[in-house]
Design a protein that fits this description.
Elements: E1 2-5, H1 6-13, E2 19-21, H2 22-29, H3 33-42, E3 58-60, H4 61-75, H5 80-104, E4 107-110, E5 116-123, E6 126-136, E7 139-146
Antiparallel strand pairs: 1-4, 2-3, 4-5, 5-6, 6-7
Helix pairs in contact: 4-5
């Protein structure tokens, strides 16, 4: 079987991998750089490099999405504080899913029949078994595999 590693997923979904500067963020969202700096001062958006004073601000895709969504809500009559709170609430499910995937994903295997088995690590109630997910048609199914002594 071919294998993928946990690092594969982390590299693919690494939070800070795709970044843009404040002028690009302004162009993408229609929000002026001055306004974006104000949003940052209020803590509604956070540049990736906030701990590097004097450096040009760079933003992750998460902040791009947040700024764009806040801008849209402001145009519909929300206050800045309410828009930021609404966007944070709407982003919670995606953030939860991100953490579940990154925390549980151990790698993948390609079985001899070409089926991709996603290793989700030890099955908590039975740590001697690993939980795998696979796609069967359009449906995700799960299976447990006993960890053999040679797999450890």
């Amino acid at each position: 079987m071919a294998n993928g590693t946990r690092a594969d997923l982390r590299e693919l979904f690494h939070r800070g991998q795709l970044t843009i500067g404040i002028s690009e963020l302004s162009k993408m969202t229609g929000v002026s750089p001055r306004q974006l700096r104000y949003w940052q001062k209020k803590g509604y958006i956070i540049p990736k490099n906030e701990d590097e004073p004097g450096q040009a601000r760079i933003y992750t895709m998460k902040m791009v999405i947040k700024a764009a969504a806040m801008s849209n809500l402001l145009q519909t009559g929300y206050t800045l504080k309410a828009a930021a709170a609404q966007v944070d609430e709407r982003m919670r499910p995606a953030q939860t899913m991100y953490h579940v995937l990154v925390d549980r994903y151990q790698g993948y295997e390609v079985a001899d029949d070409g089926q991709i088995l996603v290793d989700l690590g030890p099955f908590d109630p039975q740590p001697d078994q690993e939980l795998y997910a696979k796609l069967v048609g359009d449906r995700v199914t799960f299976e447990l595999k006993t960890v053999s002594k040679t797999d450890e």
